[in-house]
């Protein structure tokens, strides 16, 4: 193994083992054996097990920065919310371990929660809340909508859809082929829920065709 | 300790340790030491560590059966959905460990997922989907609503609100005092999202007063 290969192998093995058993459930010996790298290599590249965990976590949550692209894409809050729903499904599709780190850090935070996870989630929620507040100012969303609570509802819809997969696969198919349908269904529910009476008819008409 | 006290102590200690570190992250020795009970008592009452974990899991998910009371309470789908939102917040308030078992079993299922967790979640989602389908048949909800996807959106809104607490406490207060406001906000969003045009005005008027 070259040095770069060794570092990548440690990240890969660490991602899988930490996702399955958490920071405290994995020993440095297991990491070293699974990656076929010496313990001193873990120290050299990451400063130890905690450093490797923190590097894995940074890699998992790096994609949250892409919310900036959604913010910069325009001024239409509905289009930005649609982009958020699609992007969130895509983040989980691209990264099957993300939800494990996400939920385990939120329910049993490690010392890296406050430096890595909380800022990543807080940034996305904050930007979405700004988008919803813009929509309220533009008169497109209801004045009585609480922006942060509404955004948590939106994030919850999309993340829980993915989270619930194992418990609901007898009820529906969670095939990625249906993701685009789901984007439009969830956009219709959320928009119906927060839009002012007038523009709401507009979005229902615009997105209705994609519903089942 | 009496026998009943010993059994309860083991359940209490097991709930806390398993919630924090999962089935595989806790040894039978730690359980025995933390509960001040012998390993043979764990075997006697639960047949071993796995049996104790399974008993803890059953206790955690027993409250999901209360969905039957919501189903039996009437025929108004909107009132039933409101009751579901309130009950779900309450389940988390009453039981601070529930979300850890819930998310860890969905992302890293143990052998007890299929016998305990999946049936409990599947039952709630199934009954809610029946309620939404009744609403569609009654003409109150839109015909193009996919009942299961809509119900996952609803469950996601409420569960994620609680799950996100640690990452969003700088943005909003998650005080239980605001739960009743949240019930009405989330009911308004969900109902706005799935109701037919006519009854929607009705629900907005009925619940609007509780929004901020």
TrEMBL record, chains A, B:
<dbReference type="InterPro" id="IPR050109">
    <property type="entry name" value="HTH-type_TetR-like_transc_reg"/>
</dbReference>
<feature type="domain" description="HTH tetR-type">
    <location>
        <begin position="4"/>
        <end position="64"/>
    </location>
</feature>
<protein>
    <submittedName>
        <fullName>TetR/AcrR family transcriptional regulator</fullName>
    </submittedName>
</protein>
<dbReference type="InterPro" id="IPR001647">
    <property type="entry name" value="HTH_TetR"/>
</dbReference>
<dbReference type="InterPro" id="IPR009057">
    <property type="entry name" value="Homeodomain-like_sf"/>
</dbReference>
<keyword id="KW-0238">DNA-binding</keyword>
<dbReference type="InterPro" id="IPR041474">
    <property type="entry name" value="NicS_C"/>
</dbReference>
<dbReference type="Pfam" id="PF00440">
    <property type="entry name" value="TetR_N"/>
</dbReference>
<dbReference type="Pfam" id="PF17938">
    <property type="entry name" value="TetR_C_29"/>
</dbReference>
<dbReference type="InterPro" id="IPR036271">
    <property type="entry name" value="Tet_transcr_reg_TetR-rel_C_sf"/>
</dbReference>
<feature type="DNA-binding region" description="H-T-H motif">
    <location>
        <begin position="27"/>
        <end position="46"/>
    </location>
</feature>
């Amino acid at each position: 193994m070259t040095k770069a290969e060794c570092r990548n192998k440690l990240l890969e093995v660490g991602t899988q083992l930490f996702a399955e058993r958490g920071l405290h459930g994995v020993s440095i010996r297991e990491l070293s054996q699974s990656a076929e790298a010496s313990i001193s290599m873990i120290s050299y590249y990451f400063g130890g097990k905690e450093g490797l965990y923190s590097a894995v976590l940074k890699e998992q949550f790096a994609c949250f920065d892409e919310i900036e692209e959604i913010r910069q894409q325009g001024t239409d809050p509905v289009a930005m919310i649609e982009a958020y729903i699609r992007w969130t499904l895509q983040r989980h599709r691209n990264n099957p371990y993300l939800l494990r780190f996400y939920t385990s850090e939120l329910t049993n935070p490690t010392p890296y929660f406050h430096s890595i996870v909380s800022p990543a989630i807080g940034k996305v929620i904050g930007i979405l809340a700004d988008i919803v507040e813009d929509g309220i100012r533009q008169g497109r969303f209801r004045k009585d909508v609480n922006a942060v609570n509404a955004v948590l509802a939106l994030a919850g819809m999309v993340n829980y859809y993915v989270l619930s997969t194992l418990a609901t696969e007898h009820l529906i198919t969670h095939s990625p082929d249906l993701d685009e349908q789901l984007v439009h269904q969830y956009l219709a529910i959320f928009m119906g829920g927060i839009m002012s009476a007038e523009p709401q008819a507009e979005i229902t008409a615009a997105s209705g065709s994609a519903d089942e």
